[in-house]
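Appendix C reproduces, verbatim, an entry submitted by the partner laboratory led by Prof. M.T., so that reviewers can inspect both the input and the predicted structure.
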Amino acid sequence: MIFFAVSFALGTYFTFAAVQGDFGLFRRVEIAAERDMLSRKLTELQSQIARMENLTQRLSDDYLDLDLLDEQARSVLGLLRSDEIVIR
């Protein structure tokens, strides 16, 4: 009788640990969801880095994109040419 009670208690404990424990099934699902989320965020950050590298390269001394320079001067510094009219 005691053998069955101990066996049942141990079986219940190990079943609970396999499902709810630190290395259980629920934790594995949480880790997989977090991995997917971080993978999407990594892809987004890599695209932002590529965009920034492109803009940096286009404004470098070796290759200067005058249209981008003009756009940046207008947006950041608020510069206008003398023949332009601003309507707000």
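The chain has one domain: 2-77. Additional entries are available on request from the coordinating office.
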